[in-house]
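FORM 7B: Structural annotation worksheet

SECTION A. Query
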Amino acid sequence: MNNRRNFLKLSAIGGLISGLLLSSKTLAGAATDGKSVVAGQPQGSATAMIKKPIVVSTWEHGMPANAAAWQILSSGGKALDAVEQGVRVPEADPNVRTVGLGGYPDASGEVTLDACIMDHQMNCGAVAYLKRIKHPISVARKVMEQSSHVMLVGEGAQQFAKAQGFVEENLLTEQSKADWQQWLQSGAAKPQINIENHDTIGMLALDSHGNLAGAFTTSGAAYKLPGRVGDSPIIGAGLYVDNEVGAATATGQGELMMKTVGCHLVVELMRQGLSPKEACRKAVERIAARLPDFASFQVGFLALSKNGDSGAFCIQPGFNYAVQLQGSAQLLDADNLLHQHAGAKA
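SECTION B. Predicted structure
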């Protein structure tokens, strides 16, 4: 009887060990197949090496912005500080015509700015229709940290910024003024895709502590109606951060991101197990499916997972994004839906 009991115990232990080994192989296979192996975490989270720190941002002006952010990240600094300081670079650069100083004005000739910022604890702040303040991203952070609100707009945002010590200055450069006057003479021209529509810089960072943060700042669509606000200061539309999963930011026609809460969608798709690029692709396809003439629009998403994986996807060719991590700084072209459709027809 004792021998039989010992045999059953050994058999059970052997079966348990075999089961554990099989489960480990299954988990490893699931990770390489692009499936989520841990609930609420992105692709390969159980086995992949985390790439940190890392910073990614939209468009070519993301390269110098990333370099500024990297100075903070590479010394062990926080992602929140990195994204704020990073996007301040194009905000202060008059040659970046779609962000901050020197940005394209609205139809009345006034430069109005939108921005938002979000950290790893779901704290966020935003400003919209802010005038004469060069660094709206820093005002947005003050809203997050020095008020009980998430968003301030217009005159209220202006007064808050001044109370926090920000100094008013003229943001309309001579070049932007000349372009606006030329636009007035030519009439309301249709914006060119990837020219006036890439009116943002969105930045996402993962620091050495494993925490995510994001920032988004813009002067908005060129020659917009006074009072127009796009997706840039809207949490969930132009920017979203979930420290369990990842973060996303957007570019293109802001109204489309607002209608779909696009960046929140991208993060939720990553939560379901999609890679950053695939999550961006699915979100773009969902928007395009509702647009009979989707080829006339630009929508692009950039995402960063909790593991430090990044990816982007857009409708139109021409959207690029900057990626910086240890020993590497790259400007990459995002895959696009039009090329995908052309390949399917061929």
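SECTION C. Observations
Confidence is low (pLDDT under 50) at residues 1-47, 193-197. Residues 139 and 325 are 28 Å apart (CA to CA).

SECTION D. Sign-off
Analyst initials: ____
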